[in-house]
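Ticket #4471: structure export looks truncated?
Reporter: QA, pipeline team
Priority: medium

Steps to reproduce: submit the single chain below to the structure queue and open the exported record.
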Amino acid sequence: MRASPINKLVIIGVGLIGGSFALALKKAKAVKRVVGVGRTRKNLNAALKLGVIDEISLDASQAVRDADMVLIGTPVGQMAGVMKLIAPHLGDKTIITDGGSTKQDVIACARKHLGAHFKNFVPAHPMAGTENSGAAAAFAELYQGRKVIIVPQKETSKRAVTQVRGAWVACGANVVRLQAREHDEILAAVSHLPHVAAFTLMSTLAKRKDAKRILAFSAGGLRDTVRISGSSPEMWRDIFLANRKALLAEVDKYLIEIKCLRSFLKAGDGDAMQALFEHAREARERWLVTSTRKN
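Actual output as written to the record:
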């Protein structure tokens, strides 16, 4: 089964993820018309001006009526409300997908609110992004060579999977399948925990009385480490809460390492610190070599 061309794509939440999806499909000539739905007219106007979308709609229920595909690109905490709103207005063949960073909660919402349309829902998560947000942050090359995880359920139709997979392939992505729980556990470690570290480090420094002075002396090390703390607070709040069980387990493991390093530092044990650093550096080098080969 081959993916069919998308005549009408509706993006609900025209930000970095949804906007880049639209631009990539346009560049590949895989979509004819893109309708953007969002909370703020300013962002939608920017999306229209930049060519991310072709039409603005302030009513999601109206926008999805004759859509071939709907991408929900809102923070995960808003997806239940969006699904409940659009479900009565979806066509029998309309494909629904999402770009959320958690999957168990999104799938549960879809089961509850999409009803008979659940068979047309393909949970997805593009493993790409930047610290920027909004339609102005979108660019067509975001997904080139990047992984996109899809999590079809037993009820999901083959046609829906084919359409969503085909759309992401047209964006230049490599599509892989995972189970929802597996996805959430992996992402807690490799995506959500790094954001915990970045947000808390930046918050720690900002709370100092001499924050302005010390930050004036910062260089590449701090900028590299806290870059992702520039991401959307609303989006990451929702992600952390949605995946809190898996994330708490990863935070606990991280705290063990922090406490271990603290004990070495307190004892003045340079050999132990160096061994920890060498282990980390070697692990990073192995990871980079492996990831380079795969790409």
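Status: closed, not a bug. The export was complete when the record was re-opened. Leaving a note from the reviewer for reference: The chain has a mean pLDDT of 95.
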